Amino acid sequence: MDYTIKIGGEAGQGIQTIGNGLGKVFARAGYHVFIHQDYESRIRGGHNFFQVRLSDTPVACSRNDADIVVALDRPGIAESEGRISESGVVVYDLAILKQHFEGPRFLEVPFAELATKDGGSGIMANTVATGAVLGMLGVGLDIFNGVIAEFMQSKGARTIEENQRAAARGYDFAHEHCTMCTYRPAPPGPPRMLIDGNGGLSLGAVLSGCTFYSGYPMTPSTGILLFMTDKSEKYGIAVEQAEDEIAAINMAIGASYAGARAMTATAGGGFALMVEGVSLAAMTETPVVVVVGQRPAPATGLPTRTEQGDLLFVLHAGHGEFPKVLFAPGSPEQALFLTNKAFDLAEKYQIPAFVLTDQYLADSQWTYEGFDLGKAVYRDYRLRGKALEEATGYKRYAFTPSGVSPSAVPGCSKNLVVEDSDEHDEEGHLTEDAGLRIRMVHKRLFDKLPAIRKEISPPVLYGHDRPETVVVGWGSTYGVLREAIDTLSSRMPIALLHFSEVYPFPLTDTFDYPALLRSAKRTICVENNATSQFARLMKAETGFSFGATINKYDGRPYLLESMLGELDARLK
User: Fold this and answer.
1) Model confidence over 61-70: pLDDT tens digits?
2) Which of 68, 356, 442, 559 has the fewest beta carbons closer than 10 A?
């Protein structure tokens, strides 16, 4: 079983309501689910779609063709042409589209009429549509009735009952009239968790002890701000919506200086404003985690679309030379644990740590049986309490063999905590001494970097252990490349080499990945950008050049069939 449902319509028509409702039902029924969205940067109008894939085996990307299309506008009909499976069905409401469509693959369901039947409200048309899709698939309404009760609890029993009746009317109508429907859902199983990339990343921050979050709303990072706000009271997190991104990063640095674990998030355009703050954190050796959600640029670009175009920008952001870590998760699970690792390394080495995501990963939803939260790490590296009181001869920037100086929480003991954005001596006071400058650069950069490099995990090898073809990806291309390798592995010895811990570049002592690449007959690097930024970084760090590249930069993610077509073209 592997079905795709695509809901298309204008912004404001409740596309997400239908899609999220279906996603929750399928996940709670025990199916594997993958969801992605495509939407314009407008509140009303335009054409958007919400795509839900469900299967009885794990799925990690979207497919090109849909098995059920729910068309809430005419472009939804037009886009279904050539993008629907052989047994697919297009569902629409004549009263909404004002046009009748002939053919064996069209099913007219009067959403609005069924919603208002027996005194119901037209606003429940989306509930009817959701019920109709479940009726076409033959998935019962019990779980959906529970979802309705859960999410409409605050609106009272009458509203819940009216929506449940509306869902039943949609279900019964579609079940009776969809004579061409041949869908056969797999038996349900234990419920699964459904989580998106922003949710995984935010959960990782909470598990890491983040107690301060600042940000300015900017797609695709806004979901993190909303998550942290929602959890702020329960977990004691101070959340501040700043007036701009400059204020956001400086607030995070200030909170970190005061002893909090702090994070901020933005998109590429907002990060451009944060760059001076990055160097401030580096010079003062103040730990901070910065999330950058990539989207097409320059300038405002395509504000709600996806791209991997900010890798080199973030990697080289900040004036001066200093250590940093850069992670690029490929799934919500990776987002959780890499955010946790970013916090740990930022605190341990007193450096800025970056988590690079994008619109596709931020909004896409995956199902999991659960996360092994025992793998999350929390270590407090600050001097606090008794240890701080007993500290003698405290110097904020004391020279140590590791380059990491003791970091005290200011105002909590007799020890004076001085930090300076100018070059400084061990106590934190401004200096222009040339010899001291050299020692401080060595302390901040050369002494720390070898230890940081040892913390970076090697890339993941998925597929054949001695492949003739190696496909390389980083960040959000993980899911689609993994499924593509599964498909191609029956034809050839092929493997995926996926990088999620991007910088410093992983050492080769436990896995000599450059040797693997050099031994392969064919190497292909896949990126969602125009200039193959990761391929260029690979060459700079290892000297290795890929035999071929695949690039996509139209603001849309790779889908499975199109990825297979691109790979086939290179393999031939």
Assistant:
1) 999 999 999 9
2) 442
Last residue of a domain, one of 357, 375, 393: 375
**pLDDT exceeds 80 at position 362:** yes
- pLDDT score recorded for residue 122: 82
> Is residue 443 situated within a structural domain?
no
Residue the block writes with tokens 């901040």: 444
Q: How would you class 324 by CB atoms within 10 Å of its CB: exposed for 0-12, middle for 13-18, buried for 19 or more?
A: buried
Same domain, 137 and 249: no
| 531 confidence band (pLDDT: 50, 70, 90) | very high
Alpha-carbon span 139 to 125, nearest angstrom: 19
Q: Which distant-in-sequence residues (6+ apart) come within 8 Å of 403 by Cβ?
A: 442, 443, 444, 445, 446, 447, 448, 451
Q: How many whole angstroms from its chain centre is CA 155?
A: 32
Is residue 108 over pLDDT 90?
yes
Q: Give me 20's structure tokens.
A: 């999220």
Point out the domain boundary residue: 345, 375, 405: 375
- Judged against a pLDDT cut of 90, whether residue 499 lies above it is answered with yes
pLDDT, residue 51, reads 96
Q: Which residues contact 399 (CB under 8 A, 6 or more apart)?
A: 405, 426, 439, 443
Q: Is residue 350 part of a domain?
A: yes
Q: Which residues pair with 495 in a beta bridge?
A: 463, 470
Q: Would the pLDDT of 413 be above 90? A: no
Using alpha carbons, list the distances in angstroms from residue 74 to 39, 80, 133, 182, 538. 16, 10, 19, 25, 45
Range of the domain at 562: 456-571
Count Cβ atoms below 10 Å from residue 250 Cβ, excluding itself.
Answer: 18
Using CA atoms, how far apart are residues 348 and 363, in angstroms rounded to an integer?
A: 31
Rounded Cα gap, residues 422 and 307, in angstroms? 36
Q: Please, what is the end-to-end C-alpha distance for the chain in angstroms?
A: 31
CATH classification of the domain holding 27:
3.40.920.10
Q: Where are the alpha helices (DSSP H) in 196-267?
A: 197-207, 222-235, 245-257
Confirm whether 559 is domain-assigned: yes
pLDDT of residue 132: 96
Other beta carbons within 10 Å of 321: 10
- Sheet of 66-71, strands arranged across: 106-108, 84-92, 66-71, 2-11, 45-55, 32-38, 365-368, 193-196
Whether 440 maps to a domain, the answer reads no
Residue pLDDT, tens place only, 205-255? 999 999 999 999 999 999 999 999 999 999 999 999 999 999 999 999 999
CATH code for position 363:
3.40.50.970
Q: How many domains does the chain have?
A: 3
Please say if the pLDDT value at position 453 is more than 80. yes
